[in-house]
Amino acid sequence: MSRSFKAIIKRNLPVHAIHNLLTVSVPDSMPAPQPGQFFMVEVNKGTDPLLKRAFSLFRNTEEGIQILYRVRGKGTGILKNMKEGAVVDMLGPLGNFYPMPPEDKTPLIIAGGIGIASVFSLVEQLAGRAIVFYGARTREDLLMLKEVKQLAKEVIVSTDDGSAGAKGTVADSLLAFLANPQSPISNHCIYACGPHPLLKALSHSAREYRVRTYVSLEEHMACGIGACLGCVVKTDDGYKRVCKEGPVMNAMEISW
Amino acid sequence: MDLSVRIGSLHLKNPVMTASGTFGYGEEYAEFIDLSMLGAVVVKGLSLLPKEGNPPPRIVETASGMLNAIGLQNIGIERFIREKVPFLRTYDTNVIVNFFGDSVDEYVAAAERLSSVDGIHGLEMNISCPNKQAGWCIFGTDPRVTSEVVGAVRKATKLPLIVKLSPNVTDISLMAKVAADAGADALSVINTLTGMVIDIRTRRPKLANRTGGLSGPAIRPVAVRMVYEVYQAVKVPIIGMGGIMHAEDALEFILAGASAVAVGTANFINPTATTDILEGIEAYMIEEKIGMVSTLTGAAHAA
After folding, report:
1. Is B52 on the interface with A (CB under 8 A)?
2. Same structural domain, A52 and A84
3. Closest Cβ–Cβ partner in B44, B245, B271 for A91
């Protein structure tokens, strides 16, 4: 088993104005990735940018690993232009993963924007059990919505501008659901990935309603393997590394 | 081919070491490389008591480099001895412990405690980490204080003592002489350069600590120059470091005067960087028909 390997780009196609879906073939020696885990991807053979980039596992397919990413800086700008057949150094799968919910619980999965990249494979693995709360800025930003709808029990959509679903944030949608649940709240658990303010808001609701909540965090990361101590987040038990003790953490433990 | 080098009384099977703070306590890398392949493993800086470190953001990428302000987070010497040394002891390499204190007394107490442990082969004193708040940097920048703290630690340990020098000084040769005169067996040259990055949207420094230590290939020419100068100033062996990514970079440091090299930031990008560099040095020696790597040390000084 090796978590350091060379991957070959199979496809690297835009799915939206500023989002790409990358498919890479990986060696058989790579351990099977679990929903919530991530990879460090080399975007450059030179030294600027210097560091590998961390990306969530989007989907593990027959063809290889898929990564859904937003083009937003120098690194992803280079990655976007990489062609089929290019070889990239990768590390992974890294970090922990979403713990599976007990059979008797209904998982509520919250995705804010590109946060869908991390929770998508969880929705897939839960095979029709999950209620997905999917929020984005506009209708166009709801990436892979059709696929999510096929895999989830139910999808509750919200957009900041009201162009699809309810107008407002995904935290608002969740609060509305928790205030008027279809079954006792104790029968639910929450998984969430999205911008920090969203996760913070969700965690407050989760605390109030006493629902077990797992959040997937993002921090600046140099190594991805626990050595640099750059990606820490403050918890009740001191600083924890997002790359090692995370990226999935119990929302109650985090000092928001 | 003879790759072995000596750092004071330490015998290294080859000149490739790890730079403190970039290699955890060794465990993080054991799945990627055989630690026994390395000349030495230098572990993350330790203090008598655990330290929580700085709030995030702690790192920011820069052009061909990165700034870090981890704030010396560490598990403390006792937990290191209990939980990490037994693991490190299973490898056939030199374990060098980087350590620091807030006072001369703390440095001495830390050195004494570490010297009593089987499985620790050398000590590296951090007198130069730029991440501490006012009042502390003086260990690495005020020659009188440097002399005092190195001299005190020298008396407290029989282990090979390496002093890691700060580049954030006017004259690194002077600091090298002071450390050597006070009893250092070897010098690590260089630690990170203090820097800052400002976010033009928030109009604030990007690091929570405001400043951080710059590392990576961006600092390499500065580091090579400093090794070159220190080599002219002192007789003790030098461990060269600062942005080594490839064997070619390591060889520059050796030619400038380093007896051994430490690989730092490159470990973050490529967990097999150390052993890749070692292979590259071997290939160079074959190409250049060099029998002993130690004959390359300081070769750039020849007239």
Report:
1. yes
2. yes
3. B271
Tell me the chain A residues in contact with residue B219 when contact means C-beta distances shorter than 8 Å: none
Which residues fall within 8 angstroms of residue B65, CB to CB, at 6 or more apart? A50, B214, B215, B216, B217, B218, B219, B243, B265
Which pLDDT score, from 0 to 100, does residue B135 have? 47
Tell which of A34, A64, A93 closes a domain. Answer: A93
User: Is residue B57 less than 8 Å (CB to CB) from chain A?
Assistant: yes
**Taking CB atoms and an 8 Å limit, are A51 and B57 in contact across chains?**
no
pLDDT, averaged across chain A: 94
Same domain? A26 vs A136: no
Cβ–Cβ of A229/B56 closer than 8 Å?
no
Q: Could you give the CA distance from residue A244 to residue B51 in angstroms, rounded to a whole number? A: 19
The rounded distance, in Å, linking the Cα atoms of A158 and B36 is 55
Number of domains in chain A: 2
Question: pLDDT under 50 in chain B at which residues?
Answer: 131, 133-135
ipTM reported for the complex, 2 dp: 0.94
The answer as to whether A235 is a domain residue is: yes
**SS3 call for B74:** strand
Angle between helix axes B172-181 and B220-233 (nearest 10 degrees) is 50
Would you identify the CATH topology of the domain B5-52+72-191+217-301?
A: TIM Barrel (3.20.20)
pTM: 0.95
B166, two tokens: 């700060």
Q: What is the pLDDT of residues B38-52, one digit of tens each?
A: 999 999 999 999 999
- What CATH number does the domain containing A61 carry? 2.40.30.10
Lowest-confidence region among A17-21, A33-37, B11-15: A17-21
Whether residue A230 and residue B32 make contact (CB cut-off 8 A), yes or no, is no
Domain that holds residue A9: 4-93
Q: Which residue has the higher pLDDT, A56 or A186?
A: A56
Do A177 and A69 belong together in one domain?
no
User: What CATH code is carried by the domain that includes residue A245?
Assistant: 3.40.50.80
Residues of chain A above pLDDT 70, percent? 100
* In a domain? residue A181: yes
A88 and B CB contact within 8 Å? no
Element (H or E) spanning B104, and its range?
helix B104-115
Instruction: Kindly indicate the confidence band of residue A1, based on its pLDDT and cuts at 50, 70 and 90.
Output: low
